[in-house]
Amino acid sequence: MMAAEKASIDGRAERRTCSYENLSSRFLTQSRTFSQQYSQIYSVRLMELKPMLEATVRRKWGNRVKILPLMAVKIGQECVIMGTVFKKMVLKPSILKEISDEQSLLPPPYREKFADETDSLVLEDASQRISLTGAIDPQTAVTGAVLAARGVELPNGQFEVDDYTYCDIPPQPTVTLDEDMTAPPDKYVMMVSGMSVGEDTADQLALQLFLDLVTGQLGSDEDSQLYSRVVRVIVAGDSICNSRKGANESKLLTRKTDAGSTVFMPEVDQCLAQLASSVPTDVMPGRHDPCNYTMPQQPMHRCMFPKASSFATFQCVSNPYDCRIGGARFLGSSGQGVDNIFSYSTYDDRLSILEQTLRYGHILPTAPDTLGCYPFYKSDPFIIKECPTVFFAGSQSKFDYTDIIGSDGQRVLVVLVPRFAETSSAVLINLRTLDCQEIHFSTRLRLADDAKASGASGNTGDDDDEAMEYNSDNGGDDDATACGNADAVAASQLPGGGGGVGEQLGDVKDLDMDSPVDSQKVLVSSPNKEGMDLG
Known about the structure:
Purple Acid Phosphatase, chain A, domain 2, 6-stranded mixed sheet
């Protein structure tokens, strides 16, 4: 367990703290050898998930159904079979694309989706495999998921499925929050992803606004007192921009040429240092960060963040990341698993994909088939053996969440963390009630008439009416304010107006790391949605 000391905030408030435990040791690879076969990880996965899957079968279909290995199935006999799904896909990318690049041949056309109506499913266990047909849709299934199918074998050797099930939501230990968290005042965790520092299209002022609000350089005394209760910030991947040019030039670099991915590391370090100076900060690697490609991605080295590493509150963690904050368990990734399933299935709703991976009992079911991962052979670290309190995926196109209640009373908050560079928004989670809210950091100019019209209609222009927005209008009139839903939207303006946040916005500047840190004032949002009380 680890708990940071309470930090004084210029006499106005104190940074609240809570218990913390890093549970990600299973994702750390001590030695990396690639001599073993990838087939072993599927065998281990099936062996470890079978007890959970059998319990789900008994709960769903009763104790009278026969569970048989594939080699014991007889034609016409109704039974239940269990195994690992393999999806035959005609559009699945192959090594031929890489060969075409090298030989200057015409590459295949770009596809966002690789699912096709001719795709078919095969179920295999340790003994053999069998084709699946009937009441199961190959378009929504993915390779690597462990499945139980109920039905009969046909004379042509196929297994006709009447019904099927996955492991479902794993069992959840009793959630025991810290003693001071069982009643208000509440404590919060802030999640941000896809900051993409250095991206040409990213709104750098919105990022600075986010940093200043979280660290307390902006906000009224009331805001500071109320929202000094952000106990941790999780940066869920893709902190640096996706430089396609830098990636293409990597093969041609000379000793006097810098890779594009390293140019913006000092800026990333500066941003993370500003966060870590005020609040405990966990940084996960993502798809575009300087880290290993295969999953699990190892923690980025602290030497890449010389300023941020000087704070004891800063740590680099793995992807996926598993931890316990104030008694609530957080488990998630930087979004590669969700993106991969989106490409190899007909799922269009990424929140449904994330929820489905929880029911698979596996964080990254498509690894290692279509998602690179280390060839584990003793155990599969991606198996979800205990149900988390919060299950998240970073670097997504938009914010979304849902509350799930399992068959055994499990309570899970499933969250998509949006890319900050595209949405200028972060996610705030209440540790006691599991309220979840998106916070927008807007730097767009709004006219007074538009703002008044928006306030009169009670519509902020966003689909999620619970989002709080911090707006830095580039003007000084009292009328030039951003407004919206009075219950959910916070408005602010530049100096010369009356907004508490806007009164300090004109003094936005980089944190001087050589001077004493005075950025401990905090401003976050107040969820107004009734949530689940874990106390």
